[in-house]
Amino acid sequence: xxxxxxxxxxxxxxxxxxxxxxxxxxxxxxxxxxxxxxxxxxxxxxxxxxxxxxxxxxxxxxxxxxxxxxxxxxxxxxxxxxxxxxxxxxxxxxxxxxxxxxxxxxxxxxxxxxxxxxxxxxxxxxxxxxxxxxxxxxxxxxxxxxxxxxxxxxxxxxxxxxxxxxxxxxxxxxxxxxxxxxxxxxxxxxxxxxxxxxxxxxxxxxxxxxxxxxxxxxxxxxxxxxxxxxxxxxxxxxxxxxxxxxxxxxxxxxxxxxxxxxxxxxxxxxxxxxxxxxxxxx
Amino acid sequence: xxxxxxxxxxxxxxxxxxxxxxxxxxxxxxxxxxxxxxxxxxxxxxxxxxxxxxxxxxxxxxxxxxxxxxxxxxxxxxxxxxxxxxxxxxxxxxxxxxxxxxxxxxxxxxxxxxxxxxxxxxxxxxxxxxxxxxxxxxxxxxxxxxxxxxxxxxxxxxxxxxxxxxxxxxxxxxxxxxxxxxxxxxxxxxxxxxxxxxxxxxxxxxxxxxxxxxxxxxxxxxxxxxxxxxxxxxxxxxxxxxxxxxxxxxxx
Lengths: 282, 252
Known about the structure:
The structure holds 2 protein chains of 2 kinds.
Chain A: H1 3-9, E1 13-14, H2 21-30, H3 32-49, H4 55-76, H5 84-108, H6 113-118, H7 125-151, H8 163-187, H9 191-205, H10 212-215, H11 220-227, H12 230-242, H13 251-273
Chain B: E1 13-28, E2 47-62, E3 66-70, H1 77-85, E4 92-97, E5 102-104, H2 116-126, H3 131-145, H4 160-171, E6 178-182, H5 190-205, E7 209-213, H6 217-223, E8 226-231, E9 234-240, H7 241-251
Parallel strand pairs in B: 3-7, 3-8, 5-6, 6-7
Antiparallel strand pairs in B: 1-2, 1-4, 8-9
Helix pairs in contact in B: 2-3, 2-4, 3-4
């Protein structure tokens, strides 16, 4: 009797075969308590390592906002967008969530090789936990953003509830990006060195310091491109909600929704396709 | 090579390895030793090397067996175990199993800055236990580690023996049908070694199958009724523990 016949006769299953997509997603959902605990405990351990602890979560974006504000506030001088300080704060704070998710996602598998090699669980748990961790860290930043923009004249009103769908879409989009990069760095290790440059490029082109709708007035084609730039869409909507000087570009909502769903679906399938590759030496 | 002792009347097969080959391709780093092979700065001195870690291993493990895995360092024992769990895929051949075999190793899931108690929860969740299951067993786990006074302190403050005890206690808290133990019995003081060997035997009695990878012939003799000897990626002997261990010791 051959081995495969013996296996079949005793209802043994082949080890290490990739589960079907629906089984996989079900298993990821079943492990949600692990995912959430991983995110929560990582935040806790990070905060215990520094004396200022949780305060760093809000200090980091404030400090970078101050640096960019100083530098670009001077350089842009006359071209500064209206109400520059809150304009910049919204841009820097939101981009922080995107950047930490992309960088963290890129590292989520390759920096957890030992864990991936010692326990069986759907690997998607790792990039999901990373982005969840960043989402939880984003919450105090968001509160601070409300307080700071109020100092510069923003007044709370019902439209602020639009932040709930905005952040939901932004979160799904970031998750998709993180999943794509989590797999890419497994194939191309060197990419993890390159990711910080990609995120810097994105940072400088997303309209953090400038308003593409006014700056790019002479270039209609570029303006059309920016209308589909997912991060510019997030920032423009956030500024439209908070600041009187800006209006909410309503068409950005459905464009952003398309982005979020497409990137999330592509990312999930792309990551699942290589499930049995994660943790291999080569 | 010792005759493979097939005793067909014993327990049902739970793991079957069918001509398992594992190859690693890895970048050989560092400078070539011979000066004649030296390369310029732009010429990449890194070549892709293939390591043939397992060269066709075949065996069947049955319910209620506890199987010792022995062999010199680098012979492929740990690779074989990781292949059985599906963590390292076989390049050729296949592994079949009744349920997914578990590696007794939860260490990588734990976070050093967290307290021992939080790590029990996190480790249990990482192994796929439900939170309610872990909470029900929490006191028992803490008692087994003997770390009651330190359980609220960060794990990084533990000595290596203490954290090894914590890891062993978490890892064995789960009911395992097929369990793989890699050198775990060599940790801790003598009392703890006795306790952990007893726990391995308990697992076996609950109708489980245990693989024990160890360099300690004493713990292999005490816990295993069958032993597999792996040498340079090949199965050198497979059979009754006393016979295989004797052959292995003469070989050295």
